[in-house]
Amino acid sequence: MSHTTYYSAYSIVGILFLLGILFVVFALTANRLLSPFRPTREKLLTYESGVDPVGEGWAHTHVRYYVYAYLYVIFAVDSVYLFPWATIFAAPGFRGTTLAEMFVFIGFLAVGILYAYKKGVLTWLEQ
Q1: What is the pLDDT of residues 87-120, one digit of tens each?
Q2: What's the pLDDT tens digit per position in 52-94?
Q3: CA separation (Å) from 2 to 10, 30, 49, 60, 122?
Q4: If we measure between CA atoms, which residue out of 62, 60, 64 comes closest to residue 72?
Q5: What's 5-67 look like in SS3?
Q6: Residue 2 confidence (pLDDT)
């Protein structure tokens, strides 16, 4: 049985990290050297889902759409947190503690949703 020292265990991680960096540099360099480069006017146009660009490239988006995206992220994080909680809840010794923690977590989410509702963010049509 071999004994590894503290630093020798990290040296393996360092070597793998350097090998990963060298591989990426090699792949990007090989791509740059081996790929053909023949720019044309059509190739340099902005590509947007197969539709030719028309007009200016700057468009304003209402902040409400970002709020919807933010609310989606909150619910996604909530669901990611609920699944592991549901699996550990049945384990012995975790019932009371995990139930209290989940009520606190859901309480924070409820306060955030109530705040968004009071601010009128959750209404789709303008009043």
Answers
A1: 877 777 777 777 888 889 889 888 888 888 888 7
A2: 667 676 777 777 777 778 778 877 888 888 888 888 777 777 7
A3: 16, 40, 58, 63, 62
A4: 64
A5: CHHHHHHHHHHHHHHHHHHHHHHHHHHHHHCCCCCCCCCCCCCECCECCCCCCCCCCCHHHHH
A6: 57
